[in-house]
Design goal:
Blueprint: E1 3-6, H1 12-25, E2 30-39, E3 49-52, E4 58-60, H2 68-81, E5 85-90, H3 94-98, E6 106-114, H4 122-130, E7 135-142, E8 152-156, E9 159-163, H5 167-183, E10 187-191, E11 202-209, E12 214-218, H6 222-233, E13 237-242, E14 258-261, H7 264-273, E15 282-285, H8 290-300, E16 307-310, H9 314-326, H10 331-334, E17 337-338, H11 350-366
Parallel strand pairs: 12-13, 12-15, 13-14, 15-16, 16-17
Antiparallel strand pairs: 1-14, 2-3, 2-6, 3-4, 5-6, 7-8, 7-11, 8-9, 10-11
Helix pairs in contact: 6-11, 7-8
Domain XdhC Rossmann: 215-361
Region (Disordered): 373-397
Biased composition (Basic and acidic residues): 374-387
Length: 397
């Protein structure tokens, strides 16, 4: 049986949620600003959030600094007035441009007061995120009747709580929110005033909180510790697995969320069977030992995952490919293997190698070529190649 040591950590996203929850639990009112829509080269994506506490303290960010001051003032105002508002900041807005959105993009930001009376089911959202369960929050951000503004539904795959204003509207939003939740996407949906599919007037921002994508690191070596650190920094839920219990210890991998003592191929197969592997999962095989690598890669290369990379020299790679072909893997399956792992950065140390591996993972996820930006033209940011395979930012409420 595998032996698992689990360690929970909190990243910047969870810090925002923790701050909001602390205010909510004490009966206070916080100002919450959430990016709900972006155009052109906006600095943050939908779901980015900023919380203004009753004492004026700030957590999170909606623009990376461009319009934080103006949004702070608006968030403070809605706490006093109790009236939510949808605001746009961009180059087409002279006032917004003057406060600093010089990146050339446009942001739609919904600003609202959050308290026990305005968000009765916040605890359900927090529990789902803590337990790595998918949950979506659908909030009315525009409506002809201002009484509907800020109403919301908390939607899970098998249940829902709250209301956006009517039974008809609830049914439509719940159905669509579950579709977005399955795809791992957050976006604004449009309806008629009572939830009519072919109408306009009501806009609902559906913020999807998907569980963090997983990074599975096989091989309890120094390089694995560095890769685990990079993975946690990038927002992955990191597991380090090795069959050798003397090496696979939480003390050696303090940035990993869990450390597992088990045969790698057996652990991966069991995780796949349990439904714990998906198209966002990243697998890094760092053992460069055939007795571990080959059985593990036989399993990994037949799974629908985002990335499979294996460490080793070119000679090791050639031998590994020969063994995998003997094991029955096809050329199509073998073509999914990134080996030798990482981009050519000239890396030497474990930390530098981990950066090169992280760089390749990012390039594979977004379709980047790995070239210096100074040698390229056109858009800097790549469009999503497959939204279902991209980690979703969990900073939306």
């Amino acid at each position: 049986m595998p032996v698992t040591a689990i360690r929970l950590t909190f990243d910047a996203v969870q810090d925002v949620l923790a701050e909001l929850a602390a205010i909510w639990r004490t009966g206070g009112t916080a100002g919450l600003a959430t990016v709900v829509r972006t155009f052109a080269s906006a600095p943050r994506q939908p779901g980015a959030a900023m919380v203004v506490a009753p004492d004026g303290a700030v957590s999170g960010s909606v623009s990376g600094g461009c319009v934080e001051g103006a949004v702070y003032e608006s968030a403070s105002d809605v706490v006093v007035s109790g009236v939510p508002r949808l605001e746009r900041y961009g180059v087409s807005d002279d006032d917004a441009f003057s406060v600093g959105l010089t990146c050339g993009g446009t942001l739609d930001i919904f600003i609202e007061p959050i308290s026990r009376s305005t968000f009765a089911h916040l605890d359900r959202v927090l529990d789902a995120i803590t337990e790595h369960r998918p949950v979506a929050v659908a909030t009315v951000i525009a409506h002809p009747d201002r009484e509907w503004l800020g109403r919301r539904l908390v939607v899970e795959p098998e249940s829902a709580a709250g209301t956006v204003g009517s039974a008809r509207a609830d049914a439509a939003v719940i159905d669509d929110a579950r579709g977005l939740l399955a795809a791992g996407r957050s976006e604004v949906l449009s309806y008629g005033p009572d939830g009519q599919r072919r109408g306009e007037g009501m806009e609902v921002f559906v913020a999807c909180h998907a569980p963090r994508p997983r990074l599975l690191v096989f091989g309890a070596i120094d390089f694995a510790a560095a890769v685990a650190q990079q993975g946690a920094f990038l927002g992955y839920r990191v597991t380090v697995c090795d069959a050798r219990g003397v090496f696979a210890t939480p003390a050696r991998f303090h940035t990993a969320h869990e450390v597992v003592v088990d045969w790698p191929h057996r652990y991966l197969a069991a995780q796949a069977q349990a439904g714990a592997i998906d198209s966002r999962t990243v697998i890094c095989v760092l053992t460069h030992d055939a007795k571990f690598d080959v059985p593990l890669l036989e399993v990994a290369l037949r799974l629908d995952v985002g990335y499979v990379g294996a460490m080793g020299s070119r000679r090791t790679h050639a031998d590994r490919l020969a063994r995998l072909r003997e094991a029955g893997l096809t050329d199509a399956e073998l073509s999914r293997l990134a080996s030798p792992i990482g981009l050519d950065l000239g890396a030497r140390t474990p930390e530098e190698t981990a950066v090169s591996i992280a760089a390749e993972i990012i390039a594979r996820r977004w379709g980047g070529g790995g070239r210096p930006l100074s040698e390229t033209e056109g858009r800097i940011h790549h469009d999503e190649r497959d939204s279902a395979s991209v980690p979703v930012e969990l900073s939306n409420i």
